[in-house]
Amino acid sequence: MCFSVIAGRNTTTTGCVIMGVNNDWPGSPGQVHHKPHKSYGSEDTFLTVKGIEIPQLPETFAYTYTVCDYETGTRHLSWADGMNENQVAVGMTGVYNFHNNQQDTDILEADDLSILILERGKTARQSIEMIGELIDQYGYTVSSIEGGSGAVTIAVADPNEGFFLEVVPGGLWVARKVNNDEVECRPNCFGTQEIDFLDDDTFMYSSHLRSYALASDLYHEGDTFNFSKIFGQGPIVSEAFGGTDKDVNRLRRYNCVHRLCELKHNPSLYIYKGKPSKKISILNMMDILRDTFEGTEYDLSKYQEAGMARNPLWMEVSHSIGQSGTVFSMVFEFKGNKRFSEADEMQEGCMWIAPAASKLSCFVPFYIVTSDIPHPYQIANTGDYDLDSAWWAFQEVGQLCYRNYDAIANKLVKPEFSKLQQTFFSEQLALNNNLATLDKDKCIDELANFTHDSATKAYKEALRLGKYIKGKYLSNTIVEWL
Question: Fewer CB within 10 Å of terminal CB in the chain, N or C?
Fold first, then answer.
């Protein structure tokens, strides 16, 4: 279960696209890693999840990414979301209600597509074209993730454009560009509605998409070609996440558009996009990924199950965007300025990462030029509670909040992490002013130092808060003098 949202470049305070992604998979710890730019020989191959090798390119790009600690086929870490050195970002969302035309010869899975985009993506549009060609050549199959054998929607963005790529098992796909003056989202279902086959700027799609739908009696000549309606039907793979009209999908798409665009619409309508009521900032995107319907009739803190302390994260799988089972929340900050020559260009894209439930966490800046990820962020194993791991440290803080959500979360954890978040923003502003005076190598050093220092500071704060909460809020006693 995941969620993604893209704000077109004309809707943001930065003047570039902003993309937000929640990776939700209850019970799965997460890790952050960096892969360097690499060169390959003609004999080298790309190993797919199924263990089938396909040709590798002469070189692949560097990228920073998050993953979950579980195996999928040949991969011991799964569900990669990240950004590469060209500022191409990718975020995946599972789809569990879809038409399945899978063939025995289909090779590629969702966990292949995201890595291929990160390794080979030069722009968002080129990434879609490249992946489309690979899908047409090798086919696409449902994910082999245990308990999550679904299709996929992939958010792909760069500083100028954002797309939602939606892939049906059997190799049928469409990509829709997010309008520059709109914001658009995807919960766990297909969301592309009518396709205009004459609009090549907005839509890309598999060459046999329309002919297949006609031959399969899914679509009739003269009807509106609604991708979601045609291909978003079939057996529901996961009752918890599947189905366009289930609350988990219906209310999350409603909440995103309602919050950002102030649309007062019926949640049952298939509305995934709108024009924002004000410019969207990085902080606004962070807030939408944390949202649990506060102040609305769907406010989870007002349910009986939330208890006297009004815990909005009481559900393992809820109908809000903010989840208790989030592995990572990510906000991708793109930069459009090119201060160096084309031959010596350095991209300053930043991937803001919040470990565990972001409502009770802090977004940490990871600049993509940074290859040295602090070790605590690289380790987190399923079932192995380990405070040497940053993910487990943040997870512990969130879980401790459930002892008394109002007192611990609202009055302690959220204010403390909010102060730290503002510190990061202030330090980033000072950093940006300083970078304007530096050469490329010094810029890289400064960005790397800022990333490392911020990540270390956030990890230490999570450890401090966890220790303090355990000391002050015992099982049945509150130590008032602490």
Answer: C
- Phi and psi torsions of 113, nearest 5°: -60, -45
**pLDDT score of 123:** 97
Of 21, 28, 132, the residue nearest 81 (C-alpha): 21
> Is the Cβ–Cβ distance between 151 and 239 less than 8 Å?
no
CA 280/CA 6 separation, integer angstroms: 10
What is the chain's percent helix, strand, coil content, to nearest 5? Answer: 35, 20, 45
3-state class (DSSP) for residue 97:
strand
pLDDT digits (tens, 9 = 90+) for 262-305: 988 899 999 999 999 999 999 999 999 999 998 889 999 999 99
Q: How far apart are CA 27 and CA 34, in angstroms?
A: 23
Q: Contact at 8 Å (CB) between 225 and 195? A: yes
* 75, 254, 353, 453, 475 from 356: Cα distances, Å: 22, 24, 10, 20, 23
Contact 299, 293 (CB under 8 A): yes
User: Residue 323 pLDDT > 70, yes or no?
Assistant: yes
Q: In the chain, how long is the greatest CA-to-CA distance?
A: 74
Contacts of residue 386, Cβ cutoff 8 Å, sequence gap at least 6: 379, 380, 392
CB atoms within 10 A of CB 456: 15
473-480: average pLDDT = 73
Indicate yes or no: pTM above 0.90.
yes
Euclidean distance between CA atoms 342 and 284, whole angstroms = 32
Burial environment of residue 105 by CB neighbours within 10 A (0 to 12, 13 to 18, 19 or more): exposed
Helix (H) or strand (E) holding 304, with range, is: none
CB atoms within 10 A of CB 179: 16
Q: Read off the pLDDT of residues 440-452 as tens digits, 9 standing for 90 and up.
A: 899 999 999 999 9
For the chain, list the domains and their CATH numbers: 2-384 (3.60.60.10)
Are 210 and 197 within 8 A, CB to CB?
yes
Q: How would residue 150 be classed by pLDDT, with cut points 50, 70 and 90?
A: confident
Could you tell me whether strands 326-333 and 53-55 are parallel, antiparallel, or unpaired per DSSP bridges?
unpaired
Chain segment 413-463, per-residue pLDDT in tens: 999 999 999 999 999 999 999 988 888 899 999 999 999 999 999 999 999
Round to whole Å and give the CA distance between 5 and 115. Answer: 20
Q: Which residue has the tokens 């790309």?
A: 46
Pair 79, 68: CB distance under 8 Å: yes
In order, the DSSP letters of 10-68 are: GGBSSSS-EEEEEEE-TT--EEEEEE--EE--TT-EEEPTTS-EEEPPSEE--EEEEEE
Residue 84 β-bridge partners: 63
pLDDT average, residue stretch 44-68: 97
For 30, phi then psi, to 5°, come to: -125, 155
